[in-house]
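FAQ
Q: What does a multi-component entry look like?
A: The components come first, one per line:
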Amino acid sequence: MRMCDPPGSLERDPNVNFAYLDERTKRMIRRALLKAVCIPGHQVAFGSREMPLPYGWGTGGIQVTASILGPRDVLKVIDQGSDDTVNAVNIRRFFQRTAGVAVTTDTTRADIIQTRHRIPETPLREGQILVFQVPAPEPMQRLEPRQSETRKMHGLAEYGLMHVKLYEDIAHYGHIATTYDYPVLVNNRYVMSPSPIPKFDNPKLNMSPALQLFGAGREKRIYAVPPYTAVTSLAFDDHPFEVQRWESGCALCGSRASFLDEVLTDDHGGRMFVCSDSDYCTSRQGADVRSVISDGG
Amino acid sequence: MYVAVKGGERAIENSQALLAELRRGDPSVAELSIEQIRLQLRLAVDRIMTEGSLYDPELAALALKQASGDAIEAIFLLRAYRTTLPRLGYSVPLDTGKMRLWRRVSATFKDLPGGQILGPTYDYTQRLLDFALLAGTPVPPAPRLPADAEPVPAVLDLLDQEGLIEAESASCGDPEPHDLTREPMRFPASRAARLQNLARADEGFILALGYSTQRGYAHSHPFAGEVRFGSVEVELVPEELGFAVSIGELEVTECQMINQFAGSKSQPPQFTRGYGLAFGHSERKAMAMSLVDRALRAPELGEAIDSPAQMEEFVLSHSDSLEASGFVQHLKLPHYVDFQSELELVRRLRINAVQQDEPT
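Then the predicted structure of the entire assembly, as tokens:
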């Protein structure tokens, strides 16, 4: 049984509209999404609503998911790659309560995957939608905080500021010192924040068969990478883009191809490395382990 | 060990049960009623209505109870409720000149038509703890203004007659201004959008920014032309009627700040305005707001922008308590993945640094 039916089953709340937002708001968001898909990587301003979850905790992703979710869709929610962190659980419960949709932890079975900070290790397929929660949609915000300025830079495709920043990293450290939220160029036109995924995940953005939608609630922006769109991580010819590597494999499933979290096991410096993607890890460990973890939460 | 991160579902349920228990406190002590909060903590209720941008004292009191008295949490509850409400129409602008006054003071004229009305204020209370309240004592009735008092004209209208102060002009798009809760803020913002943002803004943030303008960061020589608090009618023009009908009354605090302006090549010297409005009795908020509104008018008045309170994007992007509170506190959320990436980088940088230090 791969469905994750949480204990204390959640009834759909009849007092709220399907997926919480009213239909006109959903339509407004879908229009913004359409525009975003038409201009890959371009940030579309939208009338972000005040959600019953705090800003910075996924309000943008939640609004995007709420606008595209249908009653027969199967939803998966992850945070840091895991279905079981409290924030992922909370958002999944929100949609169970407001939309009564089926939920899963299985990446292959999900129609919509809402994520914070990771792209699943299991390759996505056509027809799937990955919804990213985005804290800071403007890739150049830390270099130029004024939107009025960054908007112009995007309009003119004037990304010198970003290249200078990356060059200065190389001058200081010998290589680019950005490890997550690593800027990408979408469809050879817009520089885009991939959200704070580790740069390990950046190659998965490129030519993905799935539709990738990005929602930033607090900053009121939506953007998208349509299926099979070229996404390149910024780099220089003599300093090509590289992803993180680990010296060992996952301590639980042995994978050497996944992003590993470091877990402290005692207070004498003992540590182990395990997959951050919990579904990927448990499926590699076999069905027995998976069912044990599902019972626990 | 690793399994400790599982079980989020049960943790959330247990956490909510604990929260409910702590909110209620000792069950042998009588529970607070919404009525008690609404009537006896009215200033807290007013702040929640102002920043929650919903005028409903009962729901604001409920939010305050549910939030165990945390103002920002209560504002959050009220905003999340408000976002689902349908827009039935737009009222005509409030006529604060017709306000039924509780209080009205001007710092610019000793006496003026309508007079100074001190009303209920903490200003002259000497802030000594009133130990009688520990026991709870009955309060004698206070003298009131006659209920049929004539409306009192706004002080600034008197200056306006002489042309000494800039005329107040309706902003672009009136009477259907930009609705911040429906459309994203864009920069440069219209004054209507700015005032909406400031009205909903965190009182502490606006207070500090307003204060900064008095300490040399964007000085604008302010005078409190008028601060008034009372109730005003809300009027709506239903399409099928074609004339305004009153749909209710609300209490507001309004501040009209008068500021110096030296004039320019095209304009003779004239006083300028800063405006503040808040639901209920919220003088600190309304006054601070009027200072910040005036500071943000710098580009329009051709003033140099060199202080934080004049920087539109800085002020308006950081004024909302929910945006700020949510994003600051999102740091509590797991960041294992980002941190792991940084950890790996710092370890690598340290190895490189050690290798460089070693003699060759």
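Q: Is there any commentary attached?
A: Sometimes. For this entry: Chain A is about 30% helix and 15% strand.
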